[in-house]
Amino acid sequence: MSQTPPPPPAPGPNSYTTLAAGADFRHELTIKRSRFITVLRRVADEEEARALVAGLRREFYDARHHCSAFVLGADRRVQRSNDDGEPSGTAGLPMLDALLKRETRRSPAATAADLSDACAVVVRYFGGVLLGAGGLGRAYSESVSAAVDLAPLVRRDRMQLFTIAAPHAAAGRLENELRSAGYVMTGNGYDAVNTQVGLAMPDDADVIAAAQERLASLTAGQGTLAPAGLDWVDTPLPRG
Description:
Layout: E1 15-19, E2 25-31, E3 34-42, H1 46-59, E4 65-72, E5 78-82, H2 92-101, E6 103-107, E7 110-113, E8 118-125, H3 132-150, E9 153-167, H4 168-180, E10 184-190, E11 194-202, H5 205-218, E12 226-237
Antiparallel strand pairs: 1-9, 2-3, 3-8, 4-5, 4-8, 6-7, 9-11, 9-12, 10-11
Helix pairs in contact: 2-3
């Protein structure tokens, strides 16, 4: 007797916040004479996160602590933290909590705690004044929160990619119309007859259907969205 296969897993989130790609972001606080140097890096996997920690251990070889936390994946399923010699629970977990609770404004009326693919390392130089467990937790949390608030962030959206075949003479106007309507244009290809106008839009059936309707109105029903794959697209966010 055959068994009914289980349903496919539900798709993960199609949008989240992460650090802008590029150079590490650094921010330093002094709290009761201790230096807390926070370094943030966008990371794709645990190996990249651990490479950041290892590199900072070499750079700040004389520091007493190199505490870390990172969260990975659109669904934020991978979460790790390390106290690196601080009393248990006073460094890594407060740092991780600061990453997980960081809210990004998604609309004028809504925010979301969705930061991911981010690693934070806090290098501490002890200043001779004991902070106590509560003070340490607040210091590490504040260090990461302050750094993230100042760091360049992007919204990362899972987008469907498409091309539209348009005669060379009409392609420029079509591209301008779509760009003005808010679509993300991804560049063009060319052949002897047509320009392949590239665009991306959210991985959402209703959005794609609306785009096809708009395209039909712009091309007298001649234009067609040709699927060209799936990718993640970054949009810069304002700081603060």
